[in-house]
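Memo to structure team: turn this sequence into structure tokens by end of day. - J.P.
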Amino acid sequence: MNIGNKIKDLRIQKGLTQEELANRTELSKSFISQLERDLTSPSIATLNDILQCLGTSLADFFHETHEEQVVFSRTDYFEKQDQELNNSIQWIIPNAQKHAMEPIRMTLLAGGSSLPDNPHEGEEFGYVLSGSLTLHIGSCSYRVKKGESFYFIPEKTHYITTKTGASLIWVSTPPSF
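Reply from structure team:
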């Protein structure tokens, strides 16, 4: 984590100069400048004072949200070779073996779309057999091409569209039909 950059971003969001933040925290402007450039590190007490002046807490400052990966390509796949049984298993979603799903096959014609599905319990997975599509989840859109897969928890309204047509396997648990 780049503490200095995060402090600088918060300071700018609050419309404060380095000097104004320094005055409010009873620190020097040069210390704030060095801190924002990661040339020095604050004590916990000093960081807490700075964050309080910036309207946040230690917990919120260090809480990092990361966007879950939704679309997976061949580089994300994991393959296990079993020499004894002379076979291989390819997981096209990381940690796929811990999910419970029921497959359905779907073909979309050019210019088609699936009906929006409301948020629900469970999991959604898809694998594009041919063509390409756009997966819409809430306000986000993801492009998925032949040979790629997608996986998400259906907490938001979701649907797919395509301009060129697509054939895919869609897995939903629990089944929504």
